[in-house]
Amino acid sequence: DQQVKQNSPSLSVQEGRISILNCDYTNSMFDYFLWYKKYPAEGPTFLISISSIKDKNEDGRFTVFLNKSAKHLSLHIVPSQPGDSAVYFCAASVYYGGSQGNLIFGKGTKLSVKP
Amino acid sequence: GAVVSQHPSWVICKSGTSVKIECRSLDFQATTMFWYRQFPKQSLMLMATSNEGSKATYEQGVEKDKFLINHASLTLSTLTVTSAHPEDSSFYICSARPLAGVYEQYFGPGTRLTVT
Questions:
Q1: Residue B101: its pLDDT value, please?
Q2: In a 10 Å sphere around its CB, with 0-12 CB exposed, 13-18 middle and 19+ buried, how is residue A30 labelled?
Q3: Minimal Cα distance from A46: which residue of B?
Q4: A–B interface: beta-carbon pairs under 8 A
Q5: What's the confidence (pLDDT) of residue B51?
Q6: Is A81 part of the contact surface with chain B (CB cutoff 8 Å)?
């Protein structure tokens, strides 16, 4: 059973517009969420994260929103640029007993930003 | 900062042979390193977690005798695929977590393994 779900395998956006990538989770114990960006044949690159005590975190063009009641988070990229074209993975973690839990990844969403 | 390297970046081997993949944290110490496997169009699947100086913890369904993990120092972990078979062909990615207190993991560039 998938605990982290990215239901859209792909998304196409025009350059300059907003990209919204969605992620749903089922485990209410998750308390930290991360977004990673991945190019083909490369390892993921950390983008932005959010703790469960917050509902928004912003870093430049990237903003992550967390809705705990809906168990939903989203990544907004504004404005989108062609270089943002990549696969975006949502990941979640549980902090327990003084040690950090492992990351649980979604299947990813492939973003294509068209010039 | 927070750079993780993997070597080799790609390898082709014959069925039945063993392959060793190295994962190094170049500018930080990592008490914990992770090994993932990614199939085409699939998510990253955690294979095992290794802590420096202790035995690795394998995820359910991962054969520990087939995928040998050694975490000999705070900057190096190795994954050895023993008696490789074509179904072991995959993209293997390691990540490293800096010393306790953070959630983030920093990923290596991955190793493409092809078993013929």
A1: 54
A2: buried
A3: B106
A4: 52
A5: 85
A6: no
